[in-house]
């Protein structure tokens, strides 16, 4: 196991705090922390496993913060969370079977569509709408599928859960944020349960980042509750666009390389 010095520990913990704050509101925290772990010279498998631990800590913390405000419907949410957990675990087990180039090409497009939906919807969603599918159908389709994606790849999973809650379940934006944190936490824990068996987690680093991410998530959740859609909507649009751009410019992204070849 590599030696972790104190300055590196503090730097990565600071990054995790910032990522936890943004992730609690709009998702995308992993796209902040994971590249920093790579830049720090952490082995890729250890970086992914360590990042999954701190990400799970942050999403669980945000879920607890929203639950204390009475903003999570546990009766309907727990079965969805169970299926998201199963999807995350299955995705982590199948990580070597799904072509990464396919995900690298598709995910930025999906994130841009999520951003466009929230950017051009007429008003922040403050009222419940009629659900397009039942909770049971959501449990059997969207929850495990998005959870599976989180176990295999991960970027933008919180935004995808949020959009699914808004469009498919008719939830208003703040309610969707709260419920998406529960589902995100569940699939994070499902994937983490598999990754932890590899023994790749760097525990001193994971614990320091997790503590900082929990603090950031608590602050982010409080801001989301206080400011509501006025903060969530623009931040969600910005985070989705930044994530899409980051993925497109990443090394080996086939869509990004094609676009650069066409226009540069």
Kindly, what is the distance between the CA atoms of the first and last residues, rounded to a whole number of angstroms?
42 Å
**Shape descriptor:** globular
The number of distinct helices, counting runs of at least 4 residues, comes to 12
Strand content: under 5%
Which segments are poorly predicted (pLDDT under 50) over 5 or more consecutive residues? none
Summarize the structure.
The chain has 12 helices and no strands. The protein is mostly helical and 264 residues long.
How would you describe what is shown here?
This protein is mostly helical. It has one domain (6-263). The chain has 12 helices and no strands. The chain has helices spanning 6-26, 30-39, 44-68, 74-93, 100-120, 135-140, 142-152, 157-167, 173-195, 203-227, 229-249, 254-263. The radius of gyration is 17 Å and the shape is globular. The protein starts with 5 loop residues before the first helix and ends with a helix.
Write the layout of secondary structure elements.
Blueprint: H1 6-26, H2 30-39, H3 44-68, H4 74-93, H5 100-120, H6 135-140, H7 142-152, H8 157-167, H9 173-195, H10 203-227, H11 229-249, H12 254-263
Helix pairs in contact: 1-2, 1-3, 1-10, 2-3, 3-9, 3-10, 4-7, 4-9, 5-11, 7-8, 7-9, 8-9
């Amino acid at each position: 196991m590599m030696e972790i010095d104190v300055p590196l520990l503090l730097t990565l913990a600071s990054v995790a705090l910032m990522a936890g704050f943004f992730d609690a509101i709009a998702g995308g925290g992993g796209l902040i922390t994971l590249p920093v772990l790579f830049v720090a010279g952490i082995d890729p498998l250890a970086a992914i496993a360590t990042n999954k631990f701190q990400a799970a800590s942050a999403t669980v913390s945000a879920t607890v913060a929203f639950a204390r405000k009475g903003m999570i419907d546990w009766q309907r949410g727990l079965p969805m969370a169970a299926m998201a957990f199963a999807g995350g675990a299955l995705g982590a087990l199948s990580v070597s079977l799904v072509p990464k180039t396919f995900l690298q090409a598709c995910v930025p497009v999906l994130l841009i569509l999520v951003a466009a939906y929230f950017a051009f919807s007429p008003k922040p969603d403050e009222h419940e709408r009629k659900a397009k599918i039942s909770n049971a159908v959501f449990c059997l389709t969207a929850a495990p599928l998005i959870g599976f994606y989180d176990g295999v790849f991960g970027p933008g999973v919180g935004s995808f859960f949020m959009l699914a809650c808004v469009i498919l379940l008719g939830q208003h934006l703040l309610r969707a944020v709260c419920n998406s944190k529960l589902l995100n936490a569940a699939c994070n824990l499902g994937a983490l349960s598999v990754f932890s068996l590899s023994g790749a987690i760097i525990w001193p680093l994971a614990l320091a980042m997790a503590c900082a991410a929990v603090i950031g998530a608590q602050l982010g959740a409080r801001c989301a509750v206080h400011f509501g859609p006025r903060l969530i909507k623009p931040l969600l649009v910005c985070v989705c666009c930044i994530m899409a751009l980051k993925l497109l410019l990443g090394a080996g992204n086939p869509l990004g390389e094609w676009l650069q070849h066409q226009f540069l």
